[in-house]
Amino acid sequence: MEKVRVVAAGDSAILILFKQEISEEVNRAISATVQLIKMQQIEGIVDMIPAYASLLVEYNPLVIRYEELYKRLHSIVKMDTQVESLEKKIWEIPVCYGGEFGPDLSFVAENSGYSVEEVIKRHSRDAYLIYMLGFLPGFTYLGGLEEKLHTKRLDNPRLCIPAGSVGIGGSQTGVYPVDSPGGWRLIGKTPVKMYDPTKPDPILTRAGEYIRFCPISLEEYREIEEAVAKDEYEVKWYKGE
């Protein structure tokens, strides 16, 4: 990993710049740095916002001065982050593919040259790395979509895509966490709430974690949907290497 830079970003934030590329190695280094900073329990840090190749650290200048925080962050990024030792947290997100939930599934299949069944199999096969969150609360920028599943966005975006819709937009795939306009090709829907403002921690996932989509039937979708509404459903996750 090339040298990491620490620079000022306004009067209440510091930006940590990693190698300027989108890669799992860089993402893992960012995640490790976040954990190291948390372990230091630095009073005055308000938030940490990971991106593809950077980490924005927001702080309260009335609690900690820039010079002090800069010095501490500069020392942290020089530590051995041991990114290889970090365990993967992989979320299992149930998805009902096709039908009313996936109006563009046939288009994705035709575009890829796969059958509908093969698209579902391949889309749910791999664990996708969450590079960052943004655009909407809880919206995950996922990496690792198979190249043959890459599909151009709609020429005319839909005015409202229901929360939970799973789509493909170009080289990315992801879940719409709230009702929103959008131009991604919809292939399914999850009954799980990726963003729930009624929860103390409203966003389900974090940058540096992984998502694996798990195909379910319409009947299973309805059952989970009902359990979610009653706050009786817990999203499963497991540790990977």
Give an overview in words.
This protein has helices spanning 24-40, 66-77, 105-112, 116-123, 218-229, and strands spanning 5-8, 13-17, 45-50, 54-59, 88-97, 128-133, 140-143, 158-161, 165-169, 172-175, 180-182, 185-189, 210-215, 237-240. With 241 residues, it is of the alpha+beta class. Strands 5, 6, 7, 9, 10, 12, 13 and 14 form an eight-stranded mixed sheet that branches.
How many DSSP-defined strands?
14
Give the N-to-C terminal Cα separation.
21 Å
Structural class by secondary-structure content: alpha+beta
Radius of gyration: 20 Å
Q: What topology emerges from the helices and strands here?
A:
Blueprint (H helix, E strand, L loop, with lengths): L4 E4 L4 E5 L6 H17 L4 E6 L3 E6 L6 H12 L10 E10 L7 H8 L3 H8 L4 E6 L6 E4 L14 E4 L3 E5 L2 E4 L4 E3 L2 E5 L20 E6 L2 H12 L7 E4 L1
Parallel strand pairs: 5-13
Antiparallel strand pairs: 1-2, 2-4, 3-4, 5-12, 5-14, 6-7, 6-13, 8-11, 9-10, 9-12
In a nutshell, what does this entry contain?
By secondary structure, the protein is α+β, with helices and mostly antiparallel strands. It has helices at residues 24-40, 66-77, 105-112, 116-123, 218-229; strands at residues 5-8, 13-17, 45-50, 54-59, 88-97, 128-133, 140-143, 158-161, 165-169, 172-175, 180-182, 185-189, 210-215, 237-240.
